[in-house]
Input
Amino acid sequence: MKAETDTHPESIQNVSTKLSRLGLVLLCVIACSPLSWGERVQKVQDRTATLATTDESLTLTAGGHSPKLVSLSGHAGSLWQNESEEVLPPSVDINGAPVPVTWTFQPKLASVDAHHVVFVYESAQPHLRLRWQWEARAGFGPIEHRITVENLSGQEIWLPLVDSMTLDWRSSPNLALRHLYVEKGAGTPSAEGTHLEPVSDGYKWMGRSTTYAHPVEGEGREIIPIEFVYGAAAPHAGWYAGIEFSGRTRITLQRNGGSLQSKLGLNEELGPFRTRVPANGSFETPTVFLGAFSGGPDGAGNQLRPWVRAVLNNPLTWKDPHYPLTVNNSWGSGMQVDEPLALRMIADSKNLGLEMFQVDAGWFRGVGDWYPDPKKFPHGLAAIADEAHRQGLRFGIWVDWTQAGLDTAPGALNVRDPKVRGWLVNDVGPDWKPEAFKGQTIDLGVPAAHDYAAKEVKRIVEDYHLDMLEHDGYLVAQACTRDDHPHAPPDRSTLRQTHDSGFDFALGSNSTDVSYHAVRAYYDIYERLRREHPGLLLEICNDGGRMVDFGSAAHGDYFSITDTYDPLSNRRAFYDTSYAMPAAMLESYVEKWPTPRPENFLYMLRSGMMGWITIMLDTTAWTPEQHDAARSAFALYKKDLRPLIRDARLYHVSQRPDGIHWDGMEYWDPARKKGVVFTFRGSIPDEPEHRFVLSGLNPQGHYRLHFEDGSAPDREASGSELLGSGLAVHLQNPLSSELVFLEETAK
Ligand SMILES: [Zn+2]
Output
């Protein structure tokens, strides 16, 4: 993009020189003197700091009453200048009355090192302290930002909405810009999924995220909370910004003349947001991150995905060479799972070379009563886990641990229990009954409910000898009508009827605050669980792909990315989600699908094999030929595909899958000089051949091509051919696939 031409070429050169010399550095671009940084900023007018990674550099300045993000410089030389100062909360409510707040910079409290910049502002009356923080947690990739407000006043205050980040870039009206955003694969991936829009003058957009991902009429589907904005012309340089939070959030983007504005943070569309901050308590905005990139959306993704892995994900998970695992899940038999089926599936999993056996819903006595049904599992669940372990498999289960039901056995979470009743988001009627595996949600934001859930989750993991815990359903309350919970009480005038767990209740102006508290509690429970069980894997399902966001990426190990499991839905959800998240985190469930021919069978398996694969059908019903084909496919996955899924760069080298035409995905690992192209032929009968124009290769390089199924003889190709006319793939039949492996050769 050309943003730099109408801004400051000197400062770009300055930054890039310093970057190349120092790598990860902090530059205090203020008068050089032997004083400490705090003393310097007190003495000089230019209270400016720069925070950098190898991909970007941020210039930050502390004004007397408000801080400001001055600019974002990208590695490719782009420079984005921000026009507006941060808007700090102008008032708070105390005892129901607004009290104006004057924020003043506290240079002595500022702290700056190679990875952080923290500017501190205080209000004297009421006594509040605001920390405006930026952090570079990796030497590369984006920089994170959050604002914390501490209440030192000695009395309860109520804060209005504090946005996580407000951007107001100066941009030449002639600069052609694009905006890419992706939907969650919740329910069934839509026909579009990946949105690429021109950002023309007057452009106005809002993307929303909650843990529910229910489409709202007129508002479209929920997004994975990240936006990518970049120049339409090469080198397609731009910036991206995302939210590390699973609660009710939104991102806005609009362009007017020379101004390009974006806001990221909690969503106050349902009504004015307010949140209680008790004496000595604090409020923290959802953490956001801001990155600069070139090379379009894949260029952004190839920076972002390794950053998610390095900064947000659990490092222990990635140390496990089996991650992402191959799994056999019992839901192919629905709620009918029992001990004989489980033992049969364990034996067949071992036979097929799968690495984990997962018991889905149906194993428990009842909703909220998370003990094995003695009729189905007379020897309990630990016995099943132990058998899986004896066969060299890991063991995981499904649970929806925030749901209360009607069971009365000891240990059950019962909605009629007076203690539990106080935790529910709403009273249930006298005739209320839970569904087969959904009950009434408890509000984790209530400390007693949080403590109960933390203990219960720990018990489940320990009693059942788990290697993996999948949480499903809706952990985070969508709304809450209680006025004695820590969140804001509902404002009755703003209520909207909604429907959850088969029960109507009200979505009100407090819903964002409800989600704020419940998400914090959920994160705390999982942080504790990880400390106590460091090797435990955590699957985030949440009704399939409704909770794919960067906050849950920091608290779980992999996502179920959609709730529809046919090959096309799996590929579509992967296509969309993989712009934002590491491929290894993206789980596709593979369900029963018509496979009259062997190539249809491989097509089905491979459509779920681009990230984490979980088989969700009764493999014991497979023919011996299908067993052999699956065994080979899983062996190939573990040996050759998994290393690429973990480490390779990813390129979206086709249109988004439509099931009719061809689609594909390229993985290229420059360190190993190896890659693979997943290619899929759609249903159209007269399209036997397709050319995939590849990316990320060396135009001067030479590559050995191996066609796994023998659809073409192995051959050599030049980089310029693969990047130019492309990789030709010919397949005899519709609904078939081929894996083309690439290896760079010395020639
Ligand atoms: Zn509540």
